[in-house]
Amino acid sequence: MKRTPLHPAHQALGARLVDFAGWEMPMQYTSILEEHRAVREAAGLFDVSHMGDLVVRGAGAEDGLRGLLTNDIKGLPEGKGIYGHLLDERGRIIDDTMTFHVLPGTYLHIPNAATTSRVEQWIRGHVQAEVADVTERVAAMALQGPKAAAILQRLTDHDVGKLKRMHGAFMVLRADAEERAFLPDVLGPDAPADGVQAYVTRSGYTGEDGFEVLVDASASIPVWNAILEAGREDGIRPCGLGARDLLRLEMGFLLSGTDFDGRQTILQTGPSWALKWEHDFIGKEALLAQRETSYSRLVGLELMERGIPRHGHVVQYNGRDVGAVTSGTISPILGKGIALAYVDAEHSAQGQELDVVIRGRPVRAKVVKAPFIGKR
To answer: To which H or E segment does residue 37 belong?
Structure first.
C-alpha cells in the first residue's frame, strides 16, 4: 500500500489504519462518533493526501478541460474552483472532481484516489497542455467544522474571512518546518522567508465550513501538528475515513466507486447544477439520448422504522425489486437510518414510500431530498 506523508503522524496518534484505494489510511483515532461530533460541533482534521493532484497548464488548458468537464470552466476567475464530472463517450462517469484556477492558465485538478491514474491519462489524451501528476509531492489536509476558520486564522496573517466558498488562495502558515515552499516550480511564487507556503481552498466534503490545505510533502507533519495545536482549546480532533464517510453521507455527497462505479451517468447521480448543457464535452451526445429515455435515479432514502441500510440492500415496492442501496448508515444527527439508492424512475419522486430489505425483512422508507440533515 502507498502511504501519505502524514503516515508517521497517524501512527503516533494511534490511528487504526486500513487499506483504502491502495493507500494505508486512518479509519479512526478514537471513535467514529466522537470524530463525527467534533466536526459538527467544533473542528476535525483529515488527511486527504491520497486524493490526486494534477496540474494542468498552458495555452490549451482551459479549452481542453472545458471539453471534458460537465460543469463549464470557461472564464473561471483566478482563485475560483468548480465541481464537475468527467465522462466517457457513452456518458458514463469516469470520476467526479474538483478543479481550481490557481494561477493564470494553471489549473489544479483533483480526482479521487482510485481514479487518479485513469484521469491523468484521460486528460493527457484529450487536452493540448502540460499535465503534471504531483500527488506524491503534495500533502493535503481538510480542516472542517464551525471553528475551522478561527483555528486557521491563528496560523496566518492572511484574512481567512475574505476567502469565499469554493475559492482558493496562497497563504503562509506559521509552522516549524525546514521546507517552506509549496512546489514553486509547478504552482506557486517564490518560497516565503518565514513560514510554510500553502494553497488553501475553502472547500470540503462534510457540509461544514472548512478548508483544504495543500503543502509540500516535506512540511506536512509540522503543519498537521500546528493545526492540531492551534485548535486544541476548541476541541479539534484528528479524524479518519469512518467519520468522513458518515459526514458526507448525511449531506448526500457521492462516494466514487460506491455511489457510481463506471456504469452510471450524471443524469442518474446528479447533482443537476454540475451539468451545463451550453458547452460541448465528451459524453454530451450520450446524455442527450439518455434524457429521452427512462433510467434509474440515485435518491435519498430515510428509514421510517429501525434498521441500518447497507450497500447492496435491495429496495422494493409492493414486494417487487425496484433498486438497490449504494451507501447507508445511521445518522447520529437524525437518529435514524439514511441511504443513497438507485431506484426505477417511476418510484423516485420525493415522498414515495418504499421498502429496504434488511436481513430478509422489509423496512419501510421514503424518498427524501438530500442533504438529509439540512444545508449547513
So the answer is: helix 32-41
